[in-house]
Amino acid sequence: MAAIGCAFGPASDRSLGLYRTEQDRYIIATPWIDFDNDETPSIPDETCLAQICTDIWSYAIADYEHWLSLGGDPETLDSGDTVVNVTPGTYQFVHHSGERGFDVDSEGTVIFAHVDRIA
Length: 119
Hints:
The chain is mainly beta and 119 residues long. It has one helix at 64-69, and strands spanning 6-10, 16-22, 25-30, 48-52, 58-62, 91-95, 110-117. A hairpin with a 2-residue loop joins strand 2 (16-22) and strand 3 (25-30).
């Protein structure tokens, strides 16, 4: 996927989002919300750059400019597609869902991947 300018990762049927944690650093995560105690989400809503539809239990992220250069047509994007403006560069995706101890049902924010600009 990296060779074609994409990132792909497994997910669950949880509501995932792409969240900015600091400049050029992001997470793909499901924030923890304690509905029983009416608490606010563990990740501030304003840091959510995109909601990720998990109908196929995975996510895919592509370099938009690269996609356009290959003939991608913005008219084919639908309401579930989001274009996010990030600093140009090379990003490293570290997926956690295959790691020992990863528990999608754990209390607290579940981080599926860390995304960092490395070049």
